[in-house]
Amino acid sequence: MQAKRSADPIITRPGPSRRFCVAPMMDWTDRHYRYFARLVSRHALLYTEMVTSGAVLKGDRERLLGFDVAEHPLALQLGGSNASELAQCATIAEEYGYAEVNLNVGCPSDRVQNNLIGACLMAHPHLVAEAVAAMRDACSLPVTVKHRIGINGRDSYEQLGDFVETVHKAGCETFIVHARIAILEGLSPKENREIPPLRYEVVHQLKRDFPQLEIIINGGLVDIETIRTELELVDGTMVGREAYHNPYLLADVDRLLFGDDAPVLSRLDVLRAMRPYIARHLASGGQMHHVTRHMLGLFQGLPGARHFRRQLSSEIHRRQDPLGLFDELISEMSARLEQRDCPA
C-alpha cells in the first residue's frame, strides 16, 4: 500500500508529556483513583473518565470536572460531536486548569453511538475535524483525539490514513490510537477490548507515514518492557486496565520511562499517604469505599493481597469505623511484608 505522507514540518508541541498515559476509563478513573495513582507516579499523564459535552454544559460541573491540584498533569476527555458545544466545553476545561482536552472517538458503546459519540465518529472524519477546529479556536490547550484503527465496514489502512489526515488538517497534532478496530454491532464494550485482534503494526505504520504527528499507542500494554519497546516506534504509550488492577505498575514509570531517580513511595507509604485524603472525604460526607475501591490491587502478587482486597471490598461495609479498619490493614500488611523480607 502506498504510504501517506504529509509535507508538514515536524512540530514542537506544547503541553504535558504523553510518554506514559493512564487511559480514561468510565467509572474507574475518577478523582479518587487519580489522586491515588499520582502518589505512585509523578510523571504519568492521567485522564478523566469521558464526560459528555451535554453533561458539562447542563450538569453538576464541579462534581464532573473538579479535581485536586495534586492530580496534575491531568487531561479531560470529552464525548460529543457538536462543534459549538465542544468548543464551549474546551473553554471551560481551560478555566478549570486542565492540561489537555481529548475527544473520544473510540468508545463502541451502543449508548454513546446513539448520541453520535465515540467510535462511530470514525465514519465521519469531517465532523471530527470541525469539532477539533472549534475546540482549538476556543482554548489554548492541546486538543487531542483518541480513536481506534478502524470500525467494522471502515477498517482499511487507507481509510484510517484519510481520517488522520482530515483531522490533522483541522489542527490536531496528537492521536492516541487504540490498536484494535471497534465492532459497532453485536459486541459489548468489554468484548471490543478483547475480541478484535491487536494490530500494533498498523499504529507503527501510521507513525512512519505521519512522522510530524505525535502518535500514542494504546491497547493491551501490561508491562514496562513492552512499553519501552513500543517507545522506540511511537511517541508515547497509554495503559488502561493494567494500571487500574495493578496500580503499583506505575512505580517503575518515573525511573524507567522518564529518567527520574527520585525515591518512589512504597506500597505501605502509599497507604499511609492516602489516609488523610480518605479522612477528608469522610468528613465531607463521602463513603470510604468511594476511594478504597480503586486501591484493591495495590498489593497484587504479594503475601496478604487477597486479605487486603477482601477487607476493603467486603468487611469495610460492615464496620462502624471504616477508618479504623484502614489503620488495621496498614499494620497487618506491614507485618506481612516484614515477615516476607526477614531471612529464615
Automatic annotation (TrEMBL):
Pfam families named in the record: Dus
GO molecular function: flavin adenine dinucleotide binding; FMN binding; tRNA binding; tRNA-dihydrouridine20 synthase activity; tRNA-dihydrouridine20a synthase activity
UniProt xrefs under PROSITE patterns: UPF0034
Cofactor list: FMN
EC number(s) recorded for this UniProt protein: 1.3.1.91
Key words, A-Z: Flavoprotein, FMN, NADP, Nucleotide-binding, Oxidoreductase, RNA-binding, tRNA processing, tRNA-binding
InterPro entries reported in the protein's UniProt record: Aldolase_TIM, DUS-like_FMN-bd, DUS_fam, DusA, tRNA_hU_synthase_CS
Keyword tRNA processing listed: yes
Site residues (Interacts with tRNA), renumbered to this chain: 104, 190, 193, 306, 309
Substrates-to-products reaction catalysed: 5,6-dihydrouridine(20) in tRNA + NADP(+) = uridine(20) in tRNA + NADPH + H(+); 5,6-dihydrouridine(20) in tRNA + NAD(+) = uridine(20) in tRNA + NADH + H(+); 5,6-dihydrouridine(20a) in tRNA + NADP(+) = uridine(20a) in tRNA + NADPH + H(+); 5,6-dihydrouridine(20a) in tRNA + NAD(+) = uridine(20a) in tRNA + NADH + H(+)
Active-site residues per Swiss-Prot or TrEMBL entry: 107
Residue ranges annotated for the DUS-like FMN-binding domain, each copy included: 22-316
Binding site for FMN: 24-26, 77, 146, 178, 218-220, 240-241
Membership in a protein family: Belongs to the dus family.
Function summary: Catalyzes the synthesis of 5,6-dihydrouridine (D), a modified base found in the D-loop of most tRNAs, via the reduction of the C5-C6 double bond in target uridines. Specifically modifies U20 and U20a in tRNAs.
HAMAP family hit by this protein: DusA_subfam
Name of the protein: tRNA-dihydrouridine(20/20a) synthase
